[in-house]
Design goal:
22% strand, 3 domains, binds 5'-deoxyadenosine, binds iron/sulfur cluster, rSAM_sf, six-stranded parallel sheet, tRNA-2-methylthio-N(6)-dimethylallyladenosine(37) synthase activity, Rossmann fold
Length: 445
């Protein structure tokens, strides 16, 4: 197929790194002259970016590919699969079964142009340097963007498929990161989220690179008003990082720190290298240095062998930390991971009942935490109109969704908003004073 006639439709499952990778491929396709269409029906090329972290997203990919195979029987259609599922044996079997034409592992996505030139099926699962040296152009029509700083993961959590799909940690050269952020700033982007499976390890794999703490300070100097980062690992969340956040006003006081479980017995079986006491000490240090910090976490319920007493330790840890938000998952055995090979999965009813109890806890805490913003003025990055009639939506520096009357925020941008009412899920506010974008003084190093 000639690239000039390419009508591409891109579908993304999974995490923010996948969203970033889709954008990377999309910009490559744009440079090849592709047009982007909103539906499968209008497309002659459908590319699916896949997630393997739990069983559910893999099932979704399979049913989508089934649909695409049927479509292929009716008309010429090129189907591509990229991302974490593509890297797995399971994914390659899926690709064969559903007649996928292009298969690109997470380290091979820069090969998209070559793949399209190929007259045959094109599979590439190697990890290529280009994936870290490519600097995608700023995404259009958004004030908030992602920047990859490190790929892969060196931890060995027994439940996790990611080390298999994304390989060991490889940090990106700091000059490229800074160049990408400079370009985003020039394009008017107001918020950058630094991405990696474990951003705290940044630089450790490459001699001469700055540490994550040093990188945060360097990125702060660029002067984008909001810097966020995800995901962190408690073991690598060292004091120098906390200090860098405290001393760099552009870095938002929002930290996502996955705990996974509150029980030491479970943490050990999960292969998490810290214990409850270590985690709570990190939280203590964070709260001490960053008053008003917003904390979120990931928790897996129903890990094999988790007893009622273990689960209750997760509930008490939740109370000790008092998270603003949590992403909660039912344990899903992933083929080939140590926990799936060696441990017996718990009955589904047990896992579901625990998840429900945890969700109750999360709602209570989120409501309580959200309430503390009532009457205070926060900075909101308004994206556009909300689903709720008459409102514009955005989020504050702590990642809370915030709704304001649409008439008060006619343009996307930064607004000072007084919070009038909190719910467990979001904050309602009114724009106060000037609606001019907030500027934050640069730190002097
Ligand atoms: N089952 C359930 N949840 C998982 N996660 C990772 N692997 C699994 C699994 N096998 C969760 C973890 C991780 C988040 C991205 O997904 O909580 O932090
Ligand atoms: Fe899913 Fe993890 Fe891959 Fe992201 S890195 S797409 S969460 S498996």
């Amino acid at each position: 197929m000639s690239n000039a006639n390419l009508r591409a439709h891109l579908i993304t499952f999974g995490c923010q790194m996948n969203e970033y990778d889709t954008h990377l491929v999309q910009s490559e396709l744009a440079s090849l002259g592709a047009e982007f269409v909103d539906t499968i029906q209008d497309a002659n090329f459908v590319l699916v970016n896949t997630c393997a972290v739990r069983g559910k997203p893999v099932e979704k990919v399979k049913s989508l590919l089934g649909k695409l195979r049927k479509e292929k029987e009716r008309r010429p259609l090129l189907v591509g699969m990229m991302g974490c599922v593509a890297q797995l044996e399971e994914g390659q079997e899926i690709a064969k079964k559903f007649d996928v034409d292009i298969l690109l592992g997470p380290g091979a996505i820069t090969q998209i142009a070559k793949a399209l030139e190929s007259h045959d099926k094109f599979w590439d699962l190697t990890f290529r340097d280009e994936v870290n040296t490519y600097v995608p152009p700023p995404p259009k029509g958004t004030l908030s963007a992602f920047v990859s700083i490190i790929r892969g993961c060196n931890h060995h959590c027994t439940y996790c498929i990611v080390p298999k799909t994304r390989g060991p940690e490889v940090s990106r050269h700091p000059d490229l990161i800074l160049e990408e952020i400079e370009r985003l700033k020039a394009a008017g982007v107001l918020e950058v989220t630094l991405l990696g499976q474990n951003v705290n390890s940044y630089g450790k794999d490459q001699p001469g690179y700055p540490s994550f703490a040093e990188l945060l300070r360097m990125v702060g100097q660029i002067g984008i008003p909001r810097i966020k980062f995800t995901t962190s690992h408690p073991v690598n969340f060292t004091d120098d990082i906390i200090q860098a956040i405290a001393e760099t006003p552009q870095v938002c006081r929002y930290i996502h720190l996955p705990v996974q479980s509150g029980s030491n017995r479970v943490l050990r079986r999960m292969g998490r290298e810290y214990r409850r006491e270590w985690y709570l000490d990190r939280v203590r240090a964070i709260k001490e240095a960053l008053p008003d910090v917003v904390l979120s976490t990931d928790i897996i319920v129903g890990f094999p062998g988790e007893t009622e007493a273990d689960f209750e330790e997760t509930l008490t840890l939740y109370d000790e930390v008092g998270y603003d938000h949590a992403y909660m998952f039912i344990y899903s055995p992933r083929p080939g991971t140590p926990s799936a090979r060696h441990f017996q999965d718990l009955p589904r009813e047990v896992k579901v009942a625990r998840l429900q109890r945890l969700i109750e806890k999360q709602k209570e805490w989120s409501y309580r935490k959200n309430k503390r913003w009532e009457g205070r003025v926060v900075e909101v990055l308004v994206r556009g109109t909300a689903k709720e009639d008459g409102y514009a939506e955005g989020h504050d520096r702590g990642n809370h969704p915030v709704l304001v009357p649409a008439a008060q925020a006619p343009e996307p941008g930064l607004y000072q908003v007084e919070i009038k009412q909190a719910t467990p899920h979001l904050l309602y506010g009114e724009v106060v004073g000037s609606t001019a974008p907030t500027t934050i003084p640069l730190t002097v190093m």
